[in-house]
Write a structure and sequence with these properties.
This protein is of the alpha/beta class and about 300 residues long. The protein is built from 11 helices and 10 strands. It has an 8-stranded mixed β-sheet with strand order 4-3-5-10-6-9-7-8, with helices on both faces. It has a two-stranded antiparallel ribbon with strand order 1-2. Strand 3, helix 5 and strand 4 form a beta-alpha-beta unit. The longest helix is centred in the N-terminal third of the chain and has 29 residues. The protein is rod-shaped. The mean pLDDT is about 90.
Length: about 300
């Protein structure tokens, strides 16, 4: 049997849908004679009868109905393909998938990633949040383009990835005005006995923070540990305790959560990394994020 002639199949499909050669010819902007000739050739090529007369109209044979079902699927798939092509040509937006470790402040992550939206080429950000190990696994199978973390990629993970230090910041201690007024005036000794909200053990800053407290010989009363920095700040806003936040966003935190600064600890440093599969950053989005980190957020 000769290869299927899709033009003939289209004519057959249109005649079957409209019920007559004349109506199909009008839809296709062809003469009835042309449609009839092509239809006859199609039937002869297949070696089957496609239609039978039913008064002035045509009626599908059993074989014709079977062929029509396949034609419907073929032309439906073709229409779907054309729609995909149209959508692609309409939009040149590039998706960039960022994973943010839940130990990184959302305010910092937002400030880092935001410049990507101002690039000349439109970018659609896809942001994921989770534990660092899970995000690295997603990066390894190219479901993420970059991971933002508060530490380098763990060495025990057999993943080909590269650490890019975006910046680092000292820490600032914050509390509500009412709680601050109830504490001793001298920092850091005002923290001695004060209610303290700690980040969870998954935060890279956790053990360094405890070491710093021991080094300055103050013993706050730990009232809570939080795996989510935003929840910790919300408890701080309610007056439940004092909390530490990176100095680079301290002013924004004070404004957003209506708290005040008790003091700064420049020797207590939190770092932020971009982890990618690129040895050298080359993607326009990762370059924009790196540049914004150096020139703005961590400048």
């Amino acid at each position: 049997m000769a290869a299927l002639n899709f033009k003939h199949l289209r004519y057959f499909w249109m005649v079957a849908k409209t019920g007559s050669i004349a109506r199909a010819a009008a839809q296709l902007h062809l003469t009835p004679q042309s449609i009839s000739g092509q239809l006859t050739e199609f039937a002869e090529t297949l070696g089957v009868e496609l239609f039978r007369k039913a008064g002035r109209n045509l009626e599908l044979t059993d074989t014709g109905r079977h062929i029509l079902r396949h034609a419907e699927e073929i032309f439906s798939a073709g229409d779907a393909l054309l729609e995909v092509v149209r959508d692609t040509t309409r939009s040149t937006t590039t998706a960039f998938r960022v994973g943010c470790a839940d130990s990184v402040s959302k305010l910092i992550a937002c400030r880092l990633v935001e410049p990507a939206l101002a690039l000349p080429e439109p970018v659609r950000l896809v942001c994921r949040e989770g534990r660092l190990n899970s995000l690295i696994a997603e990066l390894a199978v190219h479901r993420l383009d970059m991971v933002i973390a508060d530490r380098p990629m763990p060495s025990h993970l057999s993943v080909r990835g590269y650490n890019h230090l975006l910046g680092e910041s000292g820490m600032t201690v914050c509390a509500t005005a009412a709680l601050a007024a109830s504490l001793a005036p001298a920092f850091p000794h005002c923290l001695d006995g004060a209610p303290l909200l700690l980040p969870g053990e998954d935060f890279a800053i956790y053990h360094r923070l405890l070491q710093w407290l021991a080094s300055v010989q103050v013993h706050p009363r730990i009232v809570g540990e939080f795996d989510d920095s935003a929840m910790m700040k919300a408890f701080g806003q309610s007056g439940a305790g004092v909390f530490f936040t990176p100095t680079v966003i301290a002013a924004q935190v004070c404004e957003q959560y209506r708290v005040v600064q008790l003091g700064r600890v420049d020797t207590l440093v939190e770092q932020v990394y971009a982890i990618t599969t690129e040895r050298r950053l080359s993607h326009p989005v990762t370059l924009a994020i790196s540049q914004a980190a150096r020139t703005s957020l961590f400048a």
